[in-house]
Amino acid sequence: MDTAFTVEQDEIRRTLRELMAKRCGPDDVKSAVRTATGYDVDLWRQLAEQIGLPGLALPAAYGGVGCGTVELALACEETGRALLPSPLFATAALAAPLIAALGTEAQRAALLPPVADGTLTATLAVPGGSLSAALGLTADNAGGEWAGGGRSGGVQARRTAAADGRGGTWTLYGEAPQVLDGHSAGLLLVAAHTGGFARSRTLLFLVRADAPGLVRVRQTALDETRPQARIQLRDTEGELLGADDAADVPGALAEAGRTAAVVLAAEAVGAASQALERTVDHVRTREQFGRAIGSFQAVKHRLADLYVQVQAARSAAYYAAWDPATGGLALAQAVEALRTTAGEAVQLHGGIGFTWEHDAHLYFKRAASDELLFGPAHRLRERAARVAGLFGGTETGVEAMGVAERGVTA
Length: 410
What we know:
Oligomer: single chain
Domain Acyl-CoA dehydrogenase/oxidase C-terminal: 262-387
Radius of gyration: 22 Å
Number of strands: 9
CATH class of the largest domain: Mainly Beta
Protein name: Acyl-CoA dehydrogenase family protein
Number of domains: 4
InterPro entries: Acyl-CoA_Oxase/DH_mid-dom_sf, AcylCo_DH-like_C, AcylCo_DH/oxidase_C, AcylCoA_DH/ox_N, AcylCoA_DH/ox_N_sf, AcylCoA_DH/oxidase_NM_dom_sf, SBP_3_CS
GO molecular function, one term: oxidoreductase activity
Cofactor: FAD
């Protein structure tokens, strides 16, 4: 097996790094997140037109570039370095794979080309605020508990028969409290209960941003580069994703979750790498007692430990890009590396690192936000161990592993 990157893959990385250096510095990030959309619309258009970033992993038949998970991961490593605020993750890693997997041919033909060219952004709206559980990253999603339950939990979908007794339309009622890019996405994939209380099951519905009865309120988020919104549906019309209600939604979500984990791991590795580089540059110039603080043995040891941790996380992320089944483990290692590196960056920057205005806190907030949204790391590993059947596949063994791990990493 040849694990070396191709010329085309290296070109994707180089082009994005150069563009990010010109258009996505810390000041650009802070300005973009405070706009109505939460990202630089002109930069997003440039990324779509020049690089085909939103459609990088989509088939050429639907207007995509025709690459795969490896190329998308390499691209997201570079966007993660710059903490690029954009709808890339929600659109390319969550919504697009679900449309491709579950949608009818007509739905794919209508939706994927505008997604690929960047004119349509999309996201996944999950009731209950447990996106990681819905994607099968921290829990088994087959039971549907992540989507709420009972007669009033989550989002409810009801089918209204047409006048001729055939077909009809679906209407949705309920809310999703934490939807990534929910305030700006042009298309929402909403997970909703159907079939009444006794035979309830969860399906996905397409809801346009201009649908009557849809209310979207942007929320205050810890990490402004990952904006979130509260979505309320008040008898809002939706279109069933797929030809009928026999779709394997949990399976499709779990498959999308593996790709999402790879993308998130690559983003976290890029962010950790950049935070480490900035810290190294700082300790080389910051002097104390007449010498650079980077020359002190204790500081060297801390930086060396960080370097090893970031490189190990990068190796795990690259392997997961080749084998997405290991995405959960790679994500656990990457978010730990980012959390540790961001925390050390704040410490080693001294007093300025503790001010919210300093750039180090952009990475610190991203680390905290990623663990809250998609982790924590011990839950990601616990789920991976359960899927792999380690420790005899018993709940007791898996829980013991989680407790031991928490003790080691605390």
